[in-house]
Here is the input.
Amino acid sequence: QIKSMIEQLNDKEKWGIANDIITEQFKNVIGKFRNTIKRKGLTYKKITDIVKKTREEFYAKSRSRY
Here is the structure.
């Protein structure tokens, strides 16, 4: 029933529904990420350090290929 109702909507309405679904999914992912950070005790500084080290390793590996 839901599928047939959606098929009857115009494109603008379909895109609106799709946008709402994607927005909700994004909020859920961000919420889970925030909960994980709280649970594991990660701080902004720790996250920044992890990103920095990962970036350095990535560039070191990519330079060693050439």
Observations:
- The helical segments are 2-7, 11-40, 44-64.
